[in-house]
Amino acid sequence: MKRLLRRTVFSLLAALPALGLFIGVGVTASASVHPAATSNSAQKAAAAKAAAVAFVKSLKVGYHAKNKPAPVRDHSQIKGLTQVTSTNWSGYADTGSGFSSVSATWKEPTPSCSGRSTALAAFWVGIDGYTSASVEQDGTLIECYEGGTYQFSWWEIYPVNSVQVVGESVAAGDSITATVTRSGTSYKLSVTDSTHSANSFSTTQTYAAAADSSAEWIAEAPSGSTGVEPLAKFSTWTDANSAATAGSTSGTISSFPDDEITMITSSGATEAQPSALNSAGNSFTVTWERS
Q: Among candidates 228, 273, 256, which has minimal Cα distance to 93?
């Protein structure tokens, strides 16, 4: 019995190295699966975001297909608040001459993307674009693209360049401040994301052909190669602390002749509706109605 027990113990001891090798290989193989899967997932996510950014850079933001909101009208005759409609803008525009600054603050809206459909919503402040063919602007943008949801900070001077994506980590609820300031033919475009500072930027661009004839606070459905893109569902966007300077006059939206702009579909249905200005004349809310 003792001899049998001794043989059994020796047999088990002899098998331990092989057992240890088996266990070691098993653990190593199991652990290697997760990093590979994670890496593959990260690569796919990076590729998807790169495609989304590329698509945004191909868009036209800040101007209507005819370089003015619809319907076409003689803005030189506007005295005080006038309500107009547009197929891609919702918000407010001041008209006049010699605009040298525009600014506003907002909380980044919460997007609601569904399926793999493409939809976009840009929120921005700018000089020009309403009564002229140039636009100097900056802000944030929501993009529903190929099943993903993306939010960016950006700037653009049209027609000098396309949309310039800067920050790629803008998120719902971020505290945003956007400004455009002109000095002669130089335009300083700045966006500050107080919540995620990586999205903040300031750049100065020179453009001598600008008209400086309007200032805007806009929620927009950007345009692509085939026309105006569907408007991404954003619930509401509240533009606050809005200010502008034209010549020697500085004030709020209501300090200048201003237009209230309602975005409509090609069939005339309301797409995005701005509220009336608050009592201070420096804040309003745009409500999403449909794409």
A: 256
Strand boundaries in the chain, DSSP class E: 82-86, 89-95, 99-107, 119-127, 135-145, 148-158, 164-167, 175-183, 186-193, 201-206, 214-220, 223-224, 227-228, 236-246, 249-251, 258-264, 270-274, 284-288
Please provide residue 20's backbone torsions phi and psi, each rounded to the nearest 5 degrees: -60, -40
| Single-letter code of the amino acid located at 104 | A
The three-state secondary structure class of 208 is: coil
Rounded-to-integer distance, Cα 151 and Cα 211, Å: 30
Contact 243, 283 (CB under 8 A): no
Which is it for the CA torsion 58, 263, 250, 184, positive or negative? positive
Encoded amino acid at 91, one letter: G
The pair phi, psi for residue 14, each rounded to 5°, is -65, -30
Residue of 242, 222, 231 lying closest to 92 (CA atoms)? 242
Strand partners, 92: 217, 260
In the CATH scheme, what is the code of domain 58-288?
2.60.120.700
Burial of 43 (0-12, 13-18, 19+ CB in 10 A): exposed
Confidence (pLDDT) at 64: 58
Q: Whole-angstrom Cα distance, residue 61 to residue 197? A: 23
pLDDT of residue 25 exceeding 80, the answer is no
CA angle, 239 then 242 then 248, to 5°: 165
pTM of the predicted structure, to 2 decimals: 0.82
Span 264-282, average pLDDT: 94
Report the alpha-carbon angle 93-99-152, nearest 5: 60
Q: CB-based burial of residue 178 (10 Å sphere; 0-12 exposed, 13-18 middle, 19+ buried)?
A: buried
Task: Give burial (CB, 10 Å; 0-12/13-18/19+) of 191.
Answer: buried
As a whole number of angstroms, the distance between CA 156 and CA 111 comes to 22
